[in-house]
Amino acid sequence: MSKEESDEETPSPVLPAVLACTATGLLSLGFGFGAGWRGFQDSQVYADLIEKFPDEPTKQAEAMARRSATRALIAGTGITAVLGAASIAVARSYGIKSVEDFGEEARRWLPTRTRMEDGMAKYEPLQRHISENLQSARDVVGKGFRQSSIGTYLGDKAKKSAGKHEQEEWEKDLVKKIESPDFGEK
């Protein structure tokens, strides 16, 4: 394997860095919103609004509450902007200049079809074994339900309602399959 092929297959830390900056930015926006709301709830405006409902709070109290909420939201937005710029700087430092380049980098982090097939091949016997057990359990439960009083009652009710209107061909085939003695068995 040449060095170029090795570099092509090895993913760079750009994707995790961008995802970390994005997640942190979203958290900081949430923090800004929450801090602004909390500041409003702790303000005199909120207390006046609750206590003296029909009367409006004073203009000074409204301005103070608006100012503190705006500061908190701006702080969260500022942190998000800085993190966005940091993620762009990290991407540029690794040679990612466009969305297509970033998409190619993301594809390097995703597993290829052959890698997924190779990884799942060892689980094939387990899947077959589980499927066989589930099928036999389904058959036993289905047979028990058909023999139960509820199953018999619902089956009779379905037969009565099926005869009330003209059935289409697929409905007739379905009823035949359900009524057959080997329904639900292998």
Terminal Cα span: 50 Å
Reported for the largest beta sheet, the result is: none
Overall structural class, as computed from helix and strand content, comes to: mainly alpha
Helix content: over 70%
Q: Quaternary arrangement of the chains shown? A: single chain
Architecture blueprint of SSEs:
Layout: H1 3-9, H2 14-41, H3 44-51, H4 59-93, H5 99-109, H6 113-121, H7 124-147, H8 149-162, H9 169-179
Task: Give a written overview of the molecule.
With 186 residues, the chain is an all-alpha fold. Helix content is 79%, strand content 0%. It is flat, with a radius of gyration of 32 Å. Mean pLDDT is 77; it is low at 1-7.
Question: What key phrases describe this protein's structure?
Answer:
79% helix, mainly alpha, 9 helices
Question: What is shown here, in short?
Answer:
Helices cover 79% and strands 0% of the residues. It is an all-alpha fold and 186 residues long.
